[in-house]
Each structure stands twice: as structure tokens, then as C-alpha cells.
């Protein structure tokens, strides 16, 4: 199946019947769209990761007993169990129009969820909502979003088809968390790396663009100073606010490197990650890699919301 990802103005968006949201320690962010538009939906599915349940136990209790909401436990440690929960929801509401607030799902979870919609082909399209933020804690002196790496794995549903006879090529989309990217590079010991940063004019905010450039430089320095087995290293730029543009750039890179096993690390915005989904649909041999952090900055990951952005993913028969 091929997909199209269409930006939608707020005035053009229609409300679906079902809304999917992930409860998170980013309380203001996951509640922003929900609080404003909850009356527009017939049913709202609230997923919550059990590893952080102590942080939002009160929120869960608030929604229990209200027929508008359905609460479903997932896990950042167990993607297979989480995928099973997503499958149940997709099957249960297969005849309904669906909106997904992707803002506080992990990159891994939103990738798995969209892949399930693609696999079952129940929907002609789904709508994606993205809630932007005012500030990330990395803007502070010594600030951080996550620390350590607990596990490195390919994303469920995006294992690709890697051949032992081919060398390894990592395509890295740098965001604001370079520590996990460095761990992936150390683990995979690639033969070639293509490292990307978002274009300045596509940045969701100018201050994020500056931070992204700094993190890009740190990863680039790491590649040059630490690893000795890389025989090729290149750079590219991609759009972090237009998934179709991101797709075009990544697809061109992959087509120029078909002699390699291509693995993508989607470490930038959830919006650019939508473009990665399209790339994997067009290139089934490509694998996606995810590094699970040991610790999140749950106290001050973000500091409030900025705006809503909307996209429609349209599923097209090949």
C-alpha cells in the first residue's frame, strides 16, 4: 500500500468519530487538544504506559467511569504487547473514522500504531494531530530530555530485509537527543553513515533549529573522532514540518545506496517521522531502529504548548 501525507489547515480539519491519545508525564501537552475538543468525539481512547503509571494515576482515576473514555495500558518495555493492544483497538473501531494525537506517543509506538492501520487496511485515511511545545528542557544550561540507553532494537513492523552480504548504512535524522544516537552507532558499527539535520526554514521554532544544529555537530564530531571503521560519511538536510518533503529526501538517499543494508534512525520530530513511514512503505527492505532510554526528564521535559498541526494520512491501493 502507498500512502500520501497531506497537511491540513485547522479550518479544513473535520473531526473523526474516535480520538486516540497517549497519557504522558507531559501533562499540558497530552491534555491540550483533548481538553479543547473532547466534545467532538464519540469515543476517546487513552493509552498509558505502565512504567509511568504512578505519575498519572490521578488522571486515570478521573477518566474511569466516564463512558466517553476507554483506558488501555501499554508498555515502553514491551513493544509486542503494546502492538497487541493497538491491534485490538484498530479491529474494534474498524468502521470508524480515527484521529490520532501523536504528540506524546513515543516514536516507536506511533510508528507501530500507524503500521497496524496500514496492515489491516480498514481505513481510507486517518488524521494526525501534533501539539507543538514552547520549550524543551535542553534549552536550559545542562538541560536534558533523556539519559542512558536501556535497549536498542528494530521497530516492530519495520524490520526490513537485511542481507548478510551487504554492508551497513545508517541514515540518522538528528534531533535533540544525541546520546542514544551515539549508542546506536557504537552498537551497529556501520560501514557508512549519512547524517541529517532539519532545514532551518522548516524548523518548528528558530530556537529549536539552533539546538538541532548543535546536536547535529556533536553527532558529527562523535563519528569523526570515535569510530575508525567508517569508509564513507555524508550529510543531508530534511524537512521537520513537511512529511512528503522528508520522504523525497530519504527516498533519494536510499535509492543511491541500494548496495547497502539501509537502517534509518528517526530521531527528529514526530512530523518528520511520518515521512519515514512513507519511505518504508516504498522501500520494504529498509529497517527502522529505536533506542529506548533508561530515564526521561519527567520533571521538565517540556514547558507548555505552542500550537496544533494537522495531517491526513491517505492510504492508496498499489
Amino acid at each position: 500500500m502507498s500512502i500520501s501525507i497531506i497537511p491540513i489547515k485547522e479550518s479544513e480539519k473535520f473531526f473523526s468519530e474516535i480520538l486516540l491519545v497517549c497519557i504522558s508525564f507531559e501533562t499540558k501537552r497530552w491534555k491540550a487538544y483533548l481538553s479543547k475538543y473532547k466534545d467532538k468525539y464519540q469515543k476517546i481512547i487513552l493509552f498509558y504506559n505502565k512504567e509511568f503509571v504512578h505519575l498519572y494515576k490521578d488522571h486515570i482515576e478521573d477518566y474511569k467511569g466516564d463512558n466517553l473514555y476507554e483506558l488501555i495500558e501499554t508498555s515502553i518495555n514491551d513493544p509486542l504487547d503494546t502492538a497487541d493492544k493497538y491491534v485490538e483497538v484498530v479491529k474494534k473501531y474498524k468502521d470508524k473514522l480515527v484521529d490520532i494525537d501523536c504528540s506524546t506517543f513515543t516514536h516507536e509506538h506511533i510508528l507501530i500504531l500507524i503500521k497496524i492501520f496500514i496492515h489491516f487496511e480498514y481505513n481510507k485515511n486517518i488524521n494526525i494531530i501534533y501539539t507543538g511545545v514552547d520549550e524543551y528542557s535542553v534549552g536550559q544550561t545542562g538541560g536534558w530530555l533523556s539519559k542512558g540507553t536501556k535497549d536498542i532494537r528494530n521497530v516492530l513492523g519495520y524490520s526490513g530485509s537485511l542481507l548478510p552480504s551487504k554492508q551497513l548504512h545508517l541514515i540518522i535524522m538528528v534531533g535533540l537527543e544525541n546520546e542514544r544516537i551515539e549508542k546506536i552507532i557504537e552498537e551497529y558499527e556501520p560501514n557508512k553513515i549519512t547524517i541529517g539535520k532539519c532545514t532551518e526554514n522548516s524548523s518548528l521554532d528558530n530556537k529549536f533549529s539552533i539546538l538541532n544544529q548543535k546536536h547535529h555537530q556533536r553527532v558529527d564530531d562523535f563519528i569523526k573522532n570515535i569510530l575508525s571503521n567508517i569508509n564513507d560519511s555524508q550529510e543531508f538536510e530534511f524537512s521537520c514540518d513537511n512529511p512528503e518533503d522528508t520522504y523525497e529526501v530519504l527516498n533519494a538517499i536510499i535509492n543511491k545506496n541500494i548496495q547497502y543494508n539501509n537502517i534509518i534512525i528517526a530521531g527528529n520530530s514526530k512530523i518528520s517521522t511520518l515521512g519515514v513511514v512513507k519511505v518504508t512503505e516504498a522501500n520494504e527492505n529498509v529497517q527502522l531502529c529505536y533506542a529506548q532510554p533508561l530515564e526521561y526528564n519527567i520533571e521538565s521535559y517540556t514547558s507548555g504548548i505552542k500550537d496544533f498541526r494537522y495531517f491526513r494520512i491517505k492510504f492508496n491501493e498499489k
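Residues 184 and 282 are 24 Å apart (CA to CA). The domain at 2-134+302-316 is CATH 3.40.50.10770 (Rossmann fold).
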